[in-house]
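Design a sequence for this backbone.
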């Protein structure tokens, strides 16, 4: 069964075609990495899956239905994580926001408290869950943010650059946790990233977005010299180190600035999604 199926998809924003002719599917229980340069439309794809941005052409099914705002079966962790804006809150309270938003009503509900406890246990955050977020390391806050996204036990989990600004050790911990969440819950996971290498041990599929094109397949099928050279229109060389890391030569300009001034619509809609999930839960 596919968690997501797109056929001949195209997206147009502000009169500009971001990408087109996108056809791919993601299997339930799979982990997919979305790669490509800044401004290519990686985060925009997540917003389309969330029902926040419409397709200009083609069709998309998410968990067997048309994308819709506030779908509790889809979990989402944005680049600018809400946890960073509520730094005085404890990790446990932040995870509980998944139920009741700022109302904090979950603490009076035994069943909801148990769900929060399970989310903390799954992500290995119980030991520091009652500390203020501002006292935690970046990696610990990321783990709390992942716990927050699992409260509704989503069948599809969208993670927008969860490894950003983390050192190599913290990246490895988050990658292991993503894999554990997939194995434990059976959810399909989509991860937007700038670097394939940290994710390579766990991913099943790659979507590479560049120059208004989307290519999909296994790492071997997409991240090779022929496909990337065709995609970018100039020669690309891939050097594999003795430890198996892929070094891509020829894309230095594309990836030189991880946080460009250009607008990729990366964060638009995140608050709408959280609000509508909350409203659906309380209706």
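Sequence:
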């Amino acid at each position: 069964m596919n968690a997501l199926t797109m056929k001949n998809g195209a997206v147009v924003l502000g009169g500009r075609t971001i990408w087109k002719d996108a056809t791919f599917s993601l299997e339930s229980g799979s982990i997919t990495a979305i790669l490509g340069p800044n401004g290519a439309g990686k985060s925009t794809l997540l917003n389309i899956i969330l029902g926040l941005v419409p397709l200009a052409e083609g069709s998309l099914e998410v968990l067997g239905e048309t994308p819709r705002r506030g779908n509790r079966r889809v979990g989402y962790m944005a680049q600018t994580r809400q946890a960073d804006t509520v730094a005085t809150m404890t990790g446990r309270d932040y995870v509980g926001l998944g139920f009741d938003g700022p109302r904090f009503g979950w603490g009076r509900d035994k069943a909801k408290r148990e769900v929060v406890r399970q989310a903390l246990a799954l992500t290995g955050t119980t030991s520091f869950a009652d500390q203020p977020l501002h006292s935690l390391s970046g990696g610990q806050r990321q783990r709390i943010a992942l716990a927050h996204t699992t409260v509704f036990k989503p069948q599809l989990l969208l993670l927008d650059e969860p490894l950003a600004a983390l050192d190599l050790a913290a990246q490895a911990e988050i990658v292991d946790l993503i894999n554990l969440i997939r194995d434990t819950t059976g959810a399909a996971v989509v991860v937007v990233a700038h670097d394939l290498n940290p994710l390579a041990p766990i991913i099943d599929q790659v979507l590479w977005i560049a120059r208004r094109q989307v290519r999909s397949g296994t790492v071997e099928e997409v991240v090779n010299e022929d496909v990337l050279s065709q995609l970018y229109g100039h020669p690309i060389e891939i050097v594999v180190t003795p430890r198996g890391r892929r070094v891509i030569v020829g894309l230095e300009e594309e990836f030189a600035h991880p946080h460009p001034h250009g607008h990729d619509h990366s964060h638009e809609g995140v608050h709408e999604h959280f609000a509508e999930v909350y409203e659906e839960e309380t209706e």
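Confidence is low (pLDDT under 50) at residues 256-283.
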